[in-house]
Amino acid sequence: MKYNPNEIEAKWQKHWAENQTFAAENNSEKPKYYVLDMFPYPSGAGLHVGHPLGYIASDVYARYKRHQGFNVLHPMGYDSFGLPAEQYAIQTGQRPEDTTRVNIDGGFDKEGNKIAGYRKQLDKIGFSFDWSREVRTSNPDYYKHTQWIFIQLFNSWYNKDSDKSEDISTLISIFEKEGNANVNAVCDEKIISFSATEWNTFAKEEQEKILLQYRLTYLAETEVNWCPGLGTVLANDEIVNGVSERGGFTVVRKKMTQWSMRISAYAERLLQGLNDIDWSESIKESQRNWIGKSVGAMVSFKLKGHDANIEVFTTRPDTIFGVTFMTLAPEHPLVQEITTPEYQDKINDYILASSKRSERERMADVKTISGVFTGAYAEHPFTKEPVPVWIGDYVLAGYGTGAVMAVPCGDERDYAFANFFKGQSGMLPIKNIFDKDISEAAFGSKDGFQLVDSDFLTGLGYKEGTKKAIEALEKLNQGFGKINYRLRDAVFSRQRYWGEPFPVYYVNGLPQMIDTQHLPIVLPEVEKYLPTEDGLPPLGNALVWAWDTAANKVVNTDLVDHKTIFPLELNTMPGWAGSSWYWMRYMDANNEGEFASAEALKYWESVDLYIGGSEHATGHLLYSRFWNKFLKDKGFAPTEEPFKKLINQGMILGTSAFVYRVNPFFFIESLDIRLIETTLKIPSFFITSKYKDVNDFRNVIDERVIAKSYDQVKVFLIEEYPNLKKEIESLQKKDFTLFNISITPIHADVSMVNSSDELDIEAFKNWREDYKDAEFICEENGKYIVGREVEKMSKSKYNVVTPDDICNEYGADTLRLYEMFLGPLEQAKPWNTAGISGVFGFLKKLCRLYFDEHNMIVTDEAPSKDNLKTLHKTIKKVSEDIENFSFNTSVSQFMICVNELSTQGCHSRAILEPLAIVISPYAPHIAEELWSLLGNTGSIATVSFPVFEAKHLVESEKEYPVSFNGKMRFTITLPLDLTKDQIEEIIMKDERTIKQLEGRTPNKVIIVPGKIINLVG
């Protein structure tokens, strides 16, 4: 019999599908265990070998838990809404729903390219997913529940007294009975005070406007990251280095009316909840920093000459006598009001420039110092002295109040700002209020100082000073103690098409929720996915996008009469909407009436093990926790936290291939003309990696480049200098000089490079139109050798290796074992196919324990002690490794085990049957096949995992080295239960000892039972 992985794997994948082997039950006597992978986005590029790393790890664990007798839920689905599909639709003229479906199910795109399809690729690797629970966020039967959750958020407010969300009707009831004076809610900052009588006399529209200030999802004018190139708002985590992650387009800050989620209401619970979950400290710390809890005070500075105040939150009210200036965010609403005419132009220019920098970029850039004086002054609350007001983009409008009281002697950034603008109008000298030297740097510590020159705070430290400062501010009615959070409410609108439609229509400009019984509100068809000509989102192109309140259905847009037919919301929800609750849908994925039944939610509770990337630390993982806590408050989610244990898998890196393009710079001395390569239409020249250092290849390349290029250069020169046509036409090769050469590394597709790093030159030329006439300067043997570099595996870097190729050549079990063997799960590691053949060879060697070329060779003979020792050593090691997620060392143990059993000549069923079970989580296809060939019926997937028996590892004998004067002369095997005297008696009577001693009596006999025997003298 021969190990044929393709045949075996296809057989068992079909068996699992037909028999629903991995379908979980919602009611079972078995204990439950929920293993989840982070929701993948299905792109047309499909899977590369880096994607399955986490999936294989979670699958090993899920299979192991089944072997342990658990009812395991291990589902899979697709986060199928999002900007990439929409951008692809715009570029290619295809519907995003069509491209998304092909990307998942496989097929052909508009250009006729064959798409493997995520589902087929996943199945090929043999994952034990419960496909009966598959979800796709872009399916209406899924997003109707996302819409339902949005409505629940809209109809809720956060009661600080009960510390949870409550139905908006309870807030209305309070308003009706006593007004809002005693309401302790998370709400907008500027809330008017009203009595019950006033509330009851307000018009309905006025009441709705007030309620919007309390609702957990609300409409408000917000500073957003606007990307003109994509025509949409972007979240902070969708921006990299000030440009959009998708496409690299410029992003600017802009005020827009947007839907927002009041995640800030949950800031403290999100912070405290981190103490109750088994996540890495790095992820927890990322969330703690993002939430950013600060304890301090609100301080009100009156503006001179204006009927307004600047409100500041500070964590150091004790330093208030050190304030020498104030800084506002460029977007602060007071800026335009207080700026004096002489500074207006500078202020306007600065605001425009800062709007082009993302908040992340502004926060991270601690080196650049910039700002402009407004010409305005505030009044110090105690000294009444004037305090100049500046703007600076290191202050963010969305954090705190968008204003800081600058104390340069106690803050490094304020210190740098004050020194940078030292001597300019509007910048006072730095005042030192610490008994410390600040000539070289600010003193930022909260310990080890006494305040000086600080009026009634002089002589105090941080704690006493803070307390007294707050008390004094409260007496003046110019401040109070406060806890602040960096976490801001999440903008929830996107100016896109391919996202969940809001279940919202507008009456007199105010949002109204569509009754939940009429959900889903299905995304309409549009011809164009770009914004409308007047700047409305893509849904503004929809012809059927209005809500008929009489018929309760979506109707033609031109029927809007603002009486019974009203306009629907044109924005869509962000990509994180559908992924913020998807784990609960898996619990009861086929429930048409509700997102999941109470029974299913109670049974599964939460995710026991979640595996995914650390890049989602402050995005998906934070939003998910927020939605889960909200649903817990509303009585739906059974637990406070969604994910008990989180593991972040490392990245599998690709080995990129580089070709080196030569950039020649020409000089024609007789005409005194210098030409740079980028202006010329000459063939691309590529130099082999051996010569990529300029000094090494100048002698190789100069003449060749000139010979191939000078005719084209002359054509270009005549076009540029027609008055010199005759002189140019008479130029010869000798008249051209390469005054400089540079090289540019360019990614080459790794599929065009062999294992010896040799480039297929013809394939490269045919790869792109602009390379068809390329010239290659090769090594002496005529070969072009590429450069290599390990970096992120990505389609854009052309270093992708697809798992399909590995599976086709070696089988999925080899791929699974190899990816686990590469190194610790959490670490990044380079992909190197050199070791795959070794893993494949191991599987063939495993099979040879069970069958030879013709038949099964497993026997019923009793196993030897060594056989049992090898087996139980493996059971113990693999069990511990899986529990500790040390999968790479398990694979090493499998190899050791098979080598030992092969050496021992073991073919005993009592050993090989449990061995098949132990290896099953890692290599399930061959394990199933061996289990079947051993005469067992049914799948190996749910067979009990072998129990480790320590007795088989207990040694009864010891092979002692026997030394004379420290030099080992022979060995002897003795029972371990012998005493020291018994060992000495045996050794002294041994013929080899007698021969070594030659009649002498040793001075000392050193014996440590179980370790050493040494005769001295």
Round the Cα radius of gyration to an integer and report it: 36 Å
Q: How much of the residues is beta strand, in percent?
A: 15-25%
Low-confidence stretches: none
In DSSP terms (H or I, runs of 4 or more residues), the helix count works out at: 31
Q: How many β-strands, per DSSP?
A: 38
Protein name: Leucine--tRNA ligase
Family: Belongs to the class-I aminoacyl-tRNA synthetase family.
Catalytic activity: tRNA(Leu) + L-leucine + ATP = L-leucyl-tRNA(Leu) + AMP + diphosphate
GO molecular function: aminoacyl-tRNA deacylase activity; ATP binding; leucine-tRNA ligase activity
Summarize this, please?
The protein has 1017 residues and is an alpha+beta fold. It contains 31 helices and 38 strands.
Q: Explain this structure to me?
A:
The strands form 10 sheets. Strands 13, 14, 15, 16, 17, 18 and 19 form a 7-stranded mixed β-sheet that branches. It is built from 31 helices and 38 strands. With 1017 residues, it is of the alpha+beta class. Among the domains are: 297-485; 500-572, no CATH class; 653-793, no CATH class; 955-1016. Helix 26 (865-883) runs antiparallel to helix 27 (887-904), helix 26 packs parallel to helix 28 (909-919) and helix 28 packs antiparallel against helix 29.
